[in-house]
Amino acid sequence: MAGIWPYLAILALIALLFLWERRSPEAVTRFEENALALLLATITLVSFVQVIARYGFNTGWSGALEFTRILFAWIILFGMSYGLKTGLHLGVDAAIRAFPKPLFRFAALFGAGATLLYALILLNADWLRIFGADSSGGAVFYWQRFFQIGIGLDDLRYPEWMQETFGLQERVQRWIAYLILPIGLALLGFRALQAIVDIATGKRELIIAGHEAEDLVAENKDILKD
Fold this sequence. Notes:
It is built from 9 helices and 2 strands.
């Protein structure tokens, strides 16, 4: 039972997100955008302060580099599901655009299905043994192992007052930083599944923004005339 609770937590998170999005889709989008903006702003602020402290006062925060590196990973892993949801991922669709409409939809569904498969494999590859593959582990197993071991990060430490007040260990636990691994991949799989449904029902063409450049040219074609 101890190994099942991370999966139950992920399913609960996806169910809550699904219900929240059905009730207020704009609120979910704003939350995702604000979260990404906050992560990016924090990276910028910490990097700026670190440069001033180092070159202006010959000091600095020893955990700044590790902290910003973790936040950058959070932006990537959290942002990939948002990019899939909003169609921001770039791709080449010149070949499939020449396909007949039924074949084009099949190719679009294949792309969304491949993305879902990618997310499921990275979450946990144990299920591939059903097909005879010698595979195991995944993001959930990786995170759970660090949660059980409880080892800390290299440079990121709790402030002394937090250590004394709450009895925390000196270094921030590694599982806290790696929590985005199962969450990010679960959200990617969820958005890929949504894309499959939208493509199948005709609400969406592709999971990529293949014609982004053409759309920009079309929108601004009259600017040069002015």
